[in-house]
Design a protein that fits this description.
The protein is built from eleven helices and 14 strands.
Length: 365
Amino acid sequence: MDRAAGDGRDLGRTLSLDAWRSREPRESDRSELVRVFNAAFRRDDPSSVLGWRYDRNPHGRALTRIAVDEADRLVGAYSFAPRRFVVEGRSVAVLQASDAMVFPEWQRRGIFARLDEELSAEAASAGFPFAFAFCGRRSRKTFLANGWRPIAPYRTWTRVLRAARPAFEARRSDGRLRRALVPLEALSARAADRGIRRALEGFDDRPVDRFGDEVARFPAPAQRIFGERDAAWLNWRYLETPRRAHRPFRLLRRGEVVGFYDVECAGGRGWLLDARGADDACARAALAAAVERLRALGAAAIQTTVVEGSYLDGRVADLGFRPPRDREPLPFIVRVLHAGAASDAALDASSWYVLDGDRDAEGMS
């Protein structure tokens, strides 16, 4: 984020009658970026979190623009995070919308909308074919008004392992009746356990201290779009995070690495964040191993994000997961920056191999 302060874009320009302008960030803005991040997302993170997010991503440094007031004080910011995906068999650099954040007293002044337009124009000039995002509830209206396209709903599915307080908390948004039925949900989910054990026959798992290149050498998934899981990205994403909340594991078959998965577990709640296998049987085993690992870690409930129609949809039900009763789910969205085969594929939800690990959150706990 330590960009040169002397280019023309740093001069910014007045963008509305509310006396703010946009420019690229400088190193001197770092402390205020941390402050607006924590204010917007109700966190108490140190500057190392933003350094990890914006500067050390091995797929590229974040594209970021900030909004400043008349005295050049930061009042909001927004970023696009580069990601390398394989799209239709080709390695392609795309972007993920991340961290739209504005101090409360500066909200509703069009800051997010304009920064989104400016970053999209910058990304298009740089040749990126599309950007994607897991749309938030507050940002949905602006995203869609700016031309982002809803591809499919996404929901957080839950597997109840036992009727304990964390499981009831996981179902908090589903209403009192659904929470009251958590003990029955735990019983019905056990029907999936036989299939889980069957999927794990012949496989073993081991903790990952450092990823090597074996995962990157796996044959491609059947889906047309999937994130590159090279060693540098995996180590950055799951082992170098400031919070150190992730627990990645290798999946082994007869001593050979044939898959991996990543989970989190805190306070009796577990999250299935990522999984990949050398073939479909290995991918199923990686997902099953994640469930069993979280059970062993004491999770009462496991959650994972599912984009309707994508890779996980139809697979998590076999693991005993059930969707929430969400009558208005948020959309997984795409903004086309350049028309072509890559963007055409991105507009089809069935093209995507996408999991929680492809979101922009450092950790779920």
